[in-house]
Amino acid sequence: MFEGIVPLLGLGTLLIVAVFALVSKERTEERRHDPNAPVSTLAKDGKYGGVAFLRPLRDRLARRRED
User: Average pLDDT, whole number, for the chain?
Assistant: First the structure.
């Protein structure tokens, strides 16, 4: 009675994951080509030159308070 449900659920899950991946890819590509999108702090051309996580915590917190 339930022999066909496992392959059906497997294929359904695979389809859902594939659709999610395609949608995510499109959104990422749109953002990558948008010149007004904010740059990551880890990016080389970002706010801290790609080394935000290397700055001491005290300096990061002091800089955040200034902004």
Answer: 83
67: pLDDT confidence band, cut at 50, 70 and 90? Answer: low
For residues 8 and 23, membership in a common domain is answered with yes
| Residue 67: strand, helix, or coil | coil
> In this structure, what token pair is assigned to residue 66?
């200034």
* Domain span at 63: 39-67
Alpha carbons within 13 angstroms on the beta-carbon side of residue 33 total: 5
Rounded distance between C-alpha atoms, residue 61 and residue 42, angstroms: 17
Radius of gyration of the chain from its Cα atoms, rounded to whole angstroms: 21
50: left (phi over 0), alpha (psi -120 to 50) or beta: left
